[in-house]
Amino acid sequence: MSGTAMLWPVFALVGLTFAVWCRMFVVRIGQMKRERIHPQSVATSAQAAARLTDSRVADNLRNLFELPVLFYAAALVALFAGLATPALLSLAWLFVALRFAHSAIHCTYNKVMHRFVAYLAGGVVLWLLWAYLAFLLLT
To answer: Which regions span the lipid bilayer (predicted)?
Structure first.
């Protein structure tokens, strides 16, 4: 397996983050134009929360800078330690797939229990990835 194989799930998650970031602009600017909201009137998070009614995409973008930060760190550790095993790569791709599912739910119909299952499963996979990485580093 290529030593850089761990970079592909990283690029996929970065791509998801970019797509959600772009979607946030479309949603926010669309609402601001429709409702004639002046940009200065949403300058703080409190003002934005009061004026911008659909925060699903913005909330999801924030989520993509929470648990995924630990994923990025694990991928870099695996890459630099030369530990990109098939099992570790599978866990990485599974985490990314679950983040895609979480984002799809969050940015569309936003059913909380569906979103929670995707989030929890992704979290469990991430902790397993870190545990397996630690095992590989110790052996």
So the answer is: 6-26, 69-96, 116-138
pLDDT single digits (tens) 60-108: 999 999 999 999 999 999 999 999 899 999 999 999 999 999 999 999 9
For 1, the 3-state DSSP assignment is coil
Buried b (16+ CB within 10 A) or exposed e, 105-124: bbbeeeeeeebeebbebbee
Give me 75's structure tokens.
Answer: 């991928």
Per the CB < 8 A criterion, the answer to whether 51 and 41 are in contact is yes
Domains contained in the chain, CATH given: 7-138 (1.20.120)
Could you report how far apart the first and last alpha carbons of the chain are, in Å?
Answer: 20
Q: What angle do CA 4, 9, 13 make, to 5 degrees?
A: 135
Cα-based distances in Å from 129 to 11, 16, 97: 17, 20, 14
